[in-house]
Amino acid sequence: MPEFKIQHVTKYTYDGFVRDSANKIILYPIVDIYQDVVKHTLTVTGHPQVDTYIDYYGNEVGSFTYTEPHNVMVIDSRLSVNTHQRPLPVDNIFAAEQWNELFNLRHIVPYIDFLKQEYFEGLSELTPVVEQERKTDDTPYRTALKFSNYVYRNFHYIKGVTTVETTLDEIWKIKAGVCQDFAHLLMVMLRLVGIPARYVSGYICPNRDGMRGEGATHAWAEAYIPGYGWLGIDPTNNCVANENHVRLAVGRNFSDCSPVKGVYKGSSGHKLEVSVSVGYEDGHTHEEKKDTFIPSTTSVTEPAKPRNSYARYMEMIQQQQQQQQ
């Protein structure tokens, strides 16, 4: 039963003074038989009142408005959480029976949401790949693991080539991305064969095992397995998500689980910094800090413009090729 101490700091620095910053935060860990929250403190600049509610997907969500003029806003979440190892699926039910059960779920709430595909032009290219990876006698569990292995083997884990606004088609073209991109691709593959799939946001705390996404916000997918329930699968590390994964929220995609997002009145220019540190039982701490100009908070005076991550990636490749010549 490992215990992790996690600090997640979100800092906005604005070009000028802004006001009426209204935000929605999903920084409250899921509580169930596999995850206990020992302590959680949340501090926001200006100490506005944070109201909480449970959303459609069962996540605890906070909302607040910081009305006073300010040029910096910090959201500091600190938590201690215990995780418990969960058993793997036994997978002793005939494959045909399991696929038939999934087929019968296609018109039942909430599975409808987790079977609906997002718009993806590359679907015609991905479909034959899915059929090739999937074998007739594979159970949903074995199919999900094969799909995770495909994403892990065929996509490069490269930080900075994508953003939260990067489309599935861009990810498919560059064959690269980070954890949220890997999770979205795995969900597309699962939904193509009728396996309900949902997005999970949280943290990975591997105790210095060198796993991708360590000491930072992380994302993976959950597949619904007949006779078992929701099984977390991490395609970034090609493993089943278990006691080293701390869950914050679940939803159809990243948008449903975004840790912080909102709007404000004032100058549209601002910088977003996110840092996450994970403390282990032995006192070791791993920290990662990310600076980005891609806002999850949007000015009401000028909408944020998405960056073309595919163009940036190709420019990087061209620069590398020029350096090698």
From TrEMBL:
InterPro entries associated with the record: Bac_transglu_N, Papain-like_cys_pep_sf, Transglutaminase-like
Gene3D superfamilies: 3.10.620.30
Highest taxon listed in the record's lineage: Bacteria
Positions of the Transglutaminase-like domain: 171-237
Name used for this protein in its record: Transglutaminase family protein
Organism classification: Bacteria, Pseudomonadati, Bacteroidota, Sphingobacteriia, Sphingobacteriales
